[in-house]
Design the sequence.
């Protein structure tokens, strides 16, 4: 029996690579994973959005796909600020890391962030998205 999952309200892609964003947004849209997919080009833009969400009540993401290596503010700096500002208290958002070159050091460092559930290689696949939706959002 196939379970139909409700689409999430908002997924945020945080990545400086336009091609990766295009491919991931197209896949998420095709699969009906979310009502809206929002793209931010670096951690600073994503933090600004989350702060605005906390202050002005704009939609808070259900899920963030976060790249590790970006200019302006990388994924680790984003995570540090996200925790320092206690932005995680605004909801039950899940953060998943996306990377094209995860070093052992990066993967070990990710274990220190409780908000990061898992990491995936770029670009997302249909199986990745289905696994994520079932593991984290299917009501049991």
Sequence:
């Amino acid at each position: 029996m196939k379970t139909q999952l409700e689409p999430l309200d908002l997924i945020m892609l945080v990545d400086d690579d336009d091609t990766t964003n295009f491919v991931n947004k197209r896949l998420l849209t095709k699969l009906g994973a979310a009502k809206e997919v929002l793209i931010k080009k670096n951690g600073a833009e994503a933090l600004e959005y989350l702060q605005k969400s906390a202050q002005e009540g704009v939609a808070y993401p259900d899920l963030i796909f976060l790249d590790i290596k970006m200019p302006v503010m990388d994924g680790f700096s984003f995570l540090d600020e996200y925790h320092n500002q206690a932005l995680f208290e605004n909801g039950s958002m899940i953060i998943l890391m996306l990377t094209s070159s995860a070093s052992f050091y990066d993967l070990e460092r990710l274990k220190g962030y409780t908000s990061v559930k898992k990491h995936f290689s770029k670009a997302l696949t249909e199986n990745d998205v289905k696994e994520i939706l079932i593991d984290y959002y299917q009501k049991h």
